[in-house]
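Two proteins follow. First one:
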Amino acid sequence: MALILYPDGTSKEVHPANGDHFEIEELVQIVEGTIQMIPLPDGRIMTLNEEGGRVGLPPNEQATALAGFPFNEGPLAALRGLGVETPSYAVGPLDLAYIPGTVLVSTKQEVSWTE
């Protein structure tokens, strides 16, 4: 069973439509755009909108915390305290600011498919 985490702090349990794994089209619909997957510290996979920060999707604090990103601490928090906008998801441990938009948290098997 997978979990959709919304930026407003709510969540919803979901199952793949085919009962086995999420198809690409389902993932695109859930995250409302091009998909990107990142591994989570607990072994699950987070699927998010790859362009979420660029298109202005709101920060998802639940997803940010789950991914272990420094949303409310460290140098990025200091920048926010000065009124400086920080970037959304970017590659590199010091560039990670927050996860934007709606995300899907699932097992690796739920997002594995063959073409």
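Second one, unrelated to the first:
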Amino acid sequence: MKPVEFVIQETDDTLVTHSGLALVGALLGRTEIARRANALALESKPRPETAHADVLLSMIGLLSLGKSDFADIEAFREDPFFPRALGLSAVPSEPTLRQRMAELGDTPQALLREESAQMIRRHAPRVTRCFKEWVPLDVDVSPFDNSNTKKEGVGWTYKKVDGFAPIFAYLGGEGYLVHEQLRKGTQHSQDGTPEFLRQAIAYARIVTDDPLLVRLDAGNDAKETLETCRKEKADFIIKRNLRRESQEEWLVDAQAFGDWREPRPGKRVYVGDTDRECGGRLWRVVFEVTERTTTADGQMLLLPEVEIATYWTSLGPRQATPDEVIQLYRDHGTSEQFHSEIKSDLDLERLPSGRFAVNALVLTCGMVAYNALRLVGQSALKEDKHLPPQERMPIHKTVKRRRLRSVIQDLMYLACRLVRHARRWGLGLARINPWRYAWAATYTRLTALPSSGG
């Protein structure tokens, strides 16, 4: 069968390709972002023609559609749906958006982070624990490749590319982003991390009352990190940097004090725990020492291969066994998926401005967009369970978390018709669209919840 040759016509109907902005707007409208942003005082703009809230919410709206360039706003200047969905008085032009973001700089970052955390607490269907009563707080650096640019702050990162080295803090199994910080590419991962960690724990406690389990990699193995967790009363698992510690001594200790298992002939794994001093204190250290005398295909090795992994932890032996501590740290690797969503799904890896402060604010707006999309995805999964089988989302496998790209494709870019009747605005969803039931149920749920003002 040959493809149909369609007749192209124009229509006076207002068609919307990005109806999901109504979902994001329902979330943002129940925060204090607009009120607090408009209360900011700038000497350069004592009475701005375009409100600060319109600028910030427009940027968040663009990012929630996977658009990170300032020029993308021009496509929505004459769109009747964009300002109504986000509650804007006016849609800023590209020059206004770019210039105001530069003028605002880091001024709105604290309020955006606080309101984002409150938004998660108010709307998240759940914040999944990782172990018993603990909720994970994963802190990690993820370089942004901005090669072949002359942006302020771009430098040689540990991934051996020119770019930035931002740090992120994700909460729960869903990966809600509670804190972020743009950093120069040359900045060491531990530089400034204790203060960042203190702030991240504070934001995480806005979201949940459960105890926190902070997880960091070996780049943050320092006494300051351990002391920060202790002072903030947060449990932790931090991979140790062996530095100049002897592999032979660790193997002897493991053979003496560890439990061993043999996954295959020629490979023996020792697991256990001991105490080590750091900063004048003794801390529990969990170790996993692997000794190989043959390769996986059975070839004998002239000298045994020894692989050592050790972890600082505040979890006591009665709280978590060595195997449980090791598995909990391995689950920390899930944060790499969250990094990928920020970089690719939100298109934030190559930040849009040449100014460092502007890019830092864009990244903070990206945090709000990221959490809004995550909440939309998780809320849709929850509402979908209550729908009749024939009305559920066309997902053929059980998932606990929807990737942001899937949320953008399936819910944000769900097409509809914008209608006005009896002084009210409405959206007409196509009956042939299988996502319409979950979309409508999610919107009903989000708009039924009270705003932050009560």
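SUMMARY FIELD: The chain has 14 helices and 15 strands. The chain has a mean pLDDT of 95.
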